[in-house]
Amino acid sequence: MTLDNRPIHTGGCQCGAVRFRIEGALGKASICHCRMCQKAFGAFYAPLVSVDPATIRWTKREPDRFRSSTDVLRGFCSRCGTPLTYEAPEGPALSIGAFDDPSAIRPEIQFGCEGKLPYVDELPSLPVRSTQEDAGEHPYLADIRSFQHPDHD
Fold this sequence. Notes:
Helix content is 7%, strand content 29%. The chain has two helices and ten strands. The strands form two sheets. The chain has a seven-stranded mixed beta sheet. Strand 7 and strand 8 (83-88) form a beta hairpin. The longest helix is centred in the N-terminal third of the chain and has 7 residues, at 35-41.
């Protein structure tokens, strides 16, 4: 919290070249299943949270942007490829996974469900293993060192 009790949220890309700070409340968190979001995130869906543009401060450099449609820009780090923003006429949204504490941002709604992949709802029923459990089958995991930027400034 800041001195005036506004919440502070920080985050950035995987390599740390792009970092942001938001002072103030976040908007609605969502998941978008549309094909454009799938491609932009290289994933089954895009987890996003809307933000008031006046509250965003880019503390390192700003993301590079790609115009994915007539009305939308998508921000990303050109060094590591991390998807960071969805910028539409009604305002920007940030990638939930790019926040230093993504567990604090719970999606409230799903959009673009016409593009939802048929097996997404079955993902919770898949077997699960921790990285430590997986190291037996993939020994390199036991000694792997991350070069990822830490989840803090």
